[in-house]
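#struct-pred

JT: dropping the chains for the assembly here, can someone run the whole complex?
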Amino acid sequence: MSPISRGFHGRRAAADPTRVPPGQYVTPDFPVLSAGPTPHTPLDEWDFSIGGEVEEPRRWTWEEFRALPSEDVTADIHCVTKWSKLDTTWRGVSMDTLLEGIETTAEYLAPFSDGGYTTNMPLEDVIDGKAWVAFDYGGEPLEPEHGGPARMLVPHLYFWKSAKWVRGIRLQSTDEPGFWETNGYHNHGDPWREQRYWGD
Amino acid sequence: MAGTAVLGRLAWRVADVIDLVPETPRVKTILFNVPDWPGHRAGQHVDIRLTAEDGYQAERSYSIASAPETAHVELTVERLDDGEVSPYLTDELRPGDQIEVRGPVGGYFVWEPSQGGPVLLIAGGSGVVPLMAMIRARAAAGSSVKTRLLFSSRGWDDIIYRDELERLSGNGLSVLHTLTRSQPDGWDGYARRIDAEMLAEVGPSSEEQPLIYVCGPTPFVEAVAEALVHLGHDPRVIKTERFGPTGG
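RK: done, full complex below.
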């Protein structure tokens, strides 16, 4: 039983409680959280690759990647530091499109990014229209501080799973905890089950 | 969960407020007694949870200001006028009140004296809080690791921990201030936002391979980290922590 905070009334947002997970609050802003400097990889040096346990690794240059079919996505995003932002609009390439025709027995993937960031999740969390590699935010090219030129977008998990500056994914048969996952944060990160930290 | 499976869930603990100490007109330090506090590392943060009479709850994260060696846990909180939680903490909270605390959290933006140095700490406003935990941990360990704090504040009266930083200076610790909005009469220190030129003057240089910790508002951290990379520091040794505009 939580003690009552004498004199605390809170300032409830008028948001739909079925859209805001436990412990989160709604913000109109888009706070930035990164563990290091923002990388600036020129687009002519950028590529996106799928490797690891696959029959044939794949690689797209920026031009090839942008020529892939892309889609508009409207999603609510939830950061483990407590803010949620509703109805964010993105454009990106679905992970289903990127993984199409790939043969693998892997059950996990590990996105990796410029700057050395990694994260991890089960493959089933990114297929069937649940994840994208996004390059536009709010109708504009994604800004570097928010992960541009391209970032993962996995809105049903805490937002650290949506790796900024993503450069590819490795498919793996074993689950390998990534950057925050080895630094105290939950391995799966489902906001609706409030899986913030180790042991949650 | 390689190497992590033995850890249990971080429990919410009911903490007693022991004291509140004004640091600046907008910033207060809150001293808590947290029963069964498991200990922390300098740079880590905690979650706190407030509960209204009707059961409504609000959670926020705050960096820990105190050294691990301190018996109580200290949080230093800046009042954000449009915040939901920080005005309650700075204006309403009294000694004897109880709030819930969960932590410590975070294993990346941390420094322990055993890691050595040199260490370069760069703070913008209340971004100094986790860096102060490192400075206090350094002092508590009697460490003489070469450590430099470059601290950007709006004005002289906005410098958080000003007297304590002066007291702790020496024995390898140097503290440099820049005052971006107003300066007292006779001020001969820096009086502008941190830029590459200032960072080059303050050092240590990239050849000395300092461990670097930068904490402050997002535009501050973006600018400082970019300038550090420009000066040749390895991006992998630059650890950043950013306060969004809605941290309150």
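JT: nice. Chain B touches chain A through 50 residues (CB under 8 Å). Confidence is low (pLDDT under 50) at residues 1-6 of chain B.
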